[in-house]
Amino acid sequence: MKAGSLLIGAAIALAGCHASEDGNALSHEDREAKAAIDNAVSVNQTAAQLGGLPVPQPTAHALAYQLPPSFVGRWGMTKADCDPNSLATKGLLTISADHLKFWESKGSVQRIVRHSPYDVTLVLDMTGEGQRWTSTTRLTLDAAATQLVRAEGGTPDHYRYQRC
């Protein structure tokens, strides 16, 4: 605890600088908040290094068969699709690390081509309504990962979703 007190004291002392990174003056409260944040980051990084906490790295399997976390979640074409109490969720798309689930079908990821962290092409093993087929689907996120565009391979069709 003594080391933590010293770190806090040092951070507060260093916070005596009266300008932010952009050159604007900081209030006393802002300096204290910045010092507390800087201290928490420093303590957490030190604890992780000293404690030997593992930093997860994607495995080859994950890179080949799992979507980046920014794609995972519930996506709706309309607001009603995102309402958990609504029965009219025909435009709901639920994405997990290795599956896509639509209203009447679902797809298991067989392969991923990563164009960028926000743009992937998937080869999916699809099932639904008693049928089985392979689909190539491209998913693209906007920079803030709040909108998703799904394009089916070989067609000009594009579907736009909002994150629920």
The whole-number mean of residue pLDDT values reads: 78
Structural class label: alpha+beta
Total count of domains: 2
Query: What's the helix count?
Result: 4
User: Order of strands across the widest beta sheet?
Assistant: 1-2-3-4-5-6-7-8
Number of strands: 8
What's the end-to-end separation, in Å? Answer: 42 Å
SSE pattern: HHHEHEEEEEEE
Instruction: Report the biggest beta sheet as strand number plus sense, adding barrel if it closes.
Output: 8 strands, antiparallel, barrel
Oligomer: single chain
Report the principal-axis shape: extended
Can you put this structure into words, describing what you see?
This protein has helices at about 1-15, 30-50, 60-65, 80; strands spanning about 75, 90-95, 100, 105-115, 120-130, 130-140, 145-150, 160-164. The chain is extended and about 65 Å long. The chain has about 160 residues and is α+β, with helices and mostly antiparallel strands. Helix 1 (about 1-15) crosses helix 2 (about 30-50). Helix content is about 30%, strand content about 35%. The protein has an eight-stranded antiparallel barrel.
